[in-house]
Amino acid sequence: MTNGSKKSMRFRIIFYALLILLVLFSIGPIIWMLFSSLRPKNEFFMIPPSILPKHWTVINYFLLFKETAFVQFLLNSIWISLGTIVISTVVGILAAYSLTRFNYRGRNMFALFSLFAYMLPTILLVIPLYLLVVSIGLADKLTGLVLAYVALCLPYCLWLLRSFFQTLPIELEESAFIDGAGRIRTLIYVVLPMMIPGIVATTVYSFTYVWNEYLFALIFMTSDAKRTFPVGLESFVTNFDVYWEYILSGSIIVSIPAVIVFLATQRSLIKGYGAGAVKG
Fold it and tell me: Class of the 61-279 domain?
């Protein structure tokens, strides 16, 4: 083996060793959370602590569903996430299509304004959006929280979809018009199939933002039955006790949809980008 080959082998060994350490550092807290959710409550404060449970059990998951309102928290989060994704994606597609395919005064300023709205810290929008929701009678309602999340997600979705629309060749739409297709039919059957990467990206962004959001859900929802799971998990910390068994098992459960969305959209992103490259 030559000196060059030895150096290359050493570099690869060091590189993969560092990569493995980085992966373990990243997933270490998740693994610990999973193991801790499978131990009885009396083992949480053992000295010395242990990574693996001494007595494996799934009772924490059964008690979480039986003795708490976690199911309602989870359903609220699912409903709010789906509502935000659908509204943000549909409105974003129509608005981005309008900004890139029609000529009218102020369209560039509108696009810049949407980017400016995205750059604003969300903490500045809490009070104005809350007052707006109260004024239209949607305080402490899931619909009001959905509208607030749409206001937060739509600027980024619009800007991203606008960028994707600008990369699409307009000649394909003109060919569809010549063949007799209308504007809506061309958008659905010609444009949207090439927009898969942008649609998936905006969907994932909206989902991850809404699924993990805490501040707006805490302020907008005042009744216990309307809580989302981030606020619901926080309610397991009381003045008298911290229910770690509920917090950890609930955190594992709410991580499952995020993992599923990531795995599903990862394949869609690769497929969509490949199709866009071939068609472009």
Answer: mainly alpha
